[in-house]
Amino acid sequence: MSSGGHVLTNAHVVNGCSTLKVNGRVSKLVAVSESFDLALIQTEPAEQVARFAVEPAKLNQDVTVVGYPLSFILGGVNVTRGAISSMTGLAGDETTMQISAPVQTGNSGGPVVSTTGEVVGVVVSKLNTQAVQGAFGDTPQNINFAVRGEVAKLFLSLNGVDPQFGQATENLNPVALAERVTGFTAFIECN
Fold first, then answer.
1. Between 134 and 26, whose confidence is greater?
2. 67: burial class by Cβ within 10 Å (0-12, 13-18, 19+)?
3. Is the pLDDT of residue 33 over 80?
4. How far is 113 from 117, CA to CA, in rounded Å?
5. pLDDT-based confidence at 187, cuts 50/70/90?
6. What's the pTM?
7. How far apart are CA 83 and CA 49, in angstroms?
8. What 3-state class would DSSP assign to 118?
9. Rounded distance, CA 167 to CA 2, Å?
10. Beta-strand pair 38-42/25-33
11. Which distant-in-sequence residues (6+ apart) come within 8 Å of 186 by Cβ?
12. Which tens digit of pLDDT belongs to each residue from 110-126?
């Protein structure tokens, strides 16, 4: 979330919505990019704002993912940790990167953050393990994807939102990191 009330999520999250709610409040869809699978929603200004890392994510960098997976079952915010597994996504897609932090349905659009709490990506999907199992006889584990932070920053700029940048130099302990990131992660409902 931004101080201006902008919320970044995936285009597939808002696809077909007649009503969007952000943290229970009716909100407005501002922009969508199918090619980046990103969307911008306007809602009320936030107290805590997301800040992007100045530098792109690095291979094997530790990351944390925050979101609302399986909200109909789990019912709350979820935090998982992993690393940047590959600098590209499925089939070498250069707009995404592979992460090992576990994600589930509902994590889409959630932030991927560095150990300093700065955004380095936006969760977009996970590998279809059933399809891989059927095709190759092997069940892959923790192969998930995120839109690269550089792409998300470009999308925001193209839509008139100046991305905010962090200047953090110290890593946060896992508890402090979760507290910071849950403060700017929003629950989006599509009806």
1. 26
2. buried
3. yes
4. 5
5. very high
6. 0.94
7. 23
8. coil
9. 16
10. antiparallel
11. 1, 7, 22, 23, 43, 46
12. 999 999 999 999 999 98
